[in-house]
Amino acid sequence: MLEMNHVSFHYKDGKNILENIDLQIEQGEVVSIIGNNGEGKSTLARIMAGILKPTEGNVTIDGINAYEKKHFKSIRKKVGIVFQNPENQILFNSVYDDMAFALNNLALTDQENRIKDALKKVGMEAYEKENPFQLSLGQKQRINIASVLAVNPKYMILDEPTTMIDANGKQKIYSIMRNLKKEKQTIIFVTNHMNEILLSNRIIILKNKKIDHIIKREELFEKLEELEKLHIQLPDMIQFVKLLQQGGVHINLQEYTLEALSKIIIGKIKNNN
Amino acid sequence: MKNVIKFLSFIVYLVILFYIKELKILLLLVLLHFSFIYVLKINFRLAIKRLAWLLPFVIFTTGINSIISGYLYGIFIGVRLLAAYTITYIFINSITTREMADTIGKLLFPLKMLQVDVESITLIIAISLSILPIMLEEIKQKKYAIESKGMHLRWNHMLILLKPIFISILNRTNELENALITKGYEEG
Description:
The structure holds 2 protein chains of 2 kinds. In chain A, 37% of the residues lie in helices and 22% in strands. Chain A is α/β, with parallel strands linked by helices. In chain A, strand 4 and strand 5 form a beta hairpin. The termini of chain A are far apart. Chain B has 2 domains: 94 residues, no CATH class; 82 residues, no CATH class. Chain B has 7 helices and no strands. The radius of gyration of chain B is 21 Å and the shape is globular. Chain B is an all-alpha fold. At the A-B interface, helix 2 and helix 3 of A face helix 6 and helix 7 of B.
């Protein structure tokens, strides 16, 4: 379990970013963190990943303090993070060297197979010998995801992984996330794109430096009014279903996919005919 | 070890180039180097493009030496520079920045006895070599940003470019530090 206890963070000039955050994330969960710009989402992601120390409180990962120097390597093996800007995480001008760097530091064996398997998961196996700096932003981000997967951490944190990526690249990253979800990988992702929250089991809403709400995905329809009061724009699919329901068409959506929604609508049209 | 031998051989070859006295031999070597670039399928077009950047320096050096010691000597110096450029181009295309840094690290190995952190130096070299082209591109982008806001940059305006570049370098350094931590790098 990844646990945050009474975590607060402020800069040296006293500017408060986060206040009294308490959070537990179980293994196998997919959790999304949403909030307006400046609410501290990225700061929270970095604190969770153990690379930014909170000014108060502590973070433990499977019972280990995330900031004790003696546990540095253990923590790095347990939790990986992908930054928002794909350029910020690439160190070397060879995909293989860049991915092998973490494996060398953490003394992880069987490097070649780890790298090949990780690249295959993100669909970039043909780019092993390429210069990552010369790839597109979407490809760079997939390489960064592969670099984390090669270490095989228990917890994977994605800080707005699709923000700088084009539509095609976004779809590829969503596909990777869905596959990882099926493999029971624990994923915590920060997002500004409301449609992405449908990938998660739990949605954490940050507001005024605190956790304002935690909503389970199956509770989304019940909490629509609360979300609207928080000025959270609903995912397109939820908005569409809400409009249908307002028009008298009852939709009982179990799976938040276009396929599931279209099946229900087609079924209803056929029944009416 | 293979890369150390490659690097030392390259250095020795470069030194030998500067002891060759015959223009014909140097011309032959330049042709041979270009043939290697073509046969080894190293980016030939890029080699010519990069040579175009170097050409003003080669022409200047040839010119100065021609004035001082005669046109034959000037041409001799120019061809020697071309030979040095072409073999350097072949070498840098045969080794990655990481391998280059590791090679330098191995050669600096004796400094470990003086408690010098050779591994950190190796890492700095590797990352610097990789990041340098990106920083140059970022400088170009900052220049475009300033020009898009209506200022035509001249030499006496270059100080205006310094501040955003400096901030960019600091931000990049901060992010590099985070990237190193996430990839399990521990200092010392």
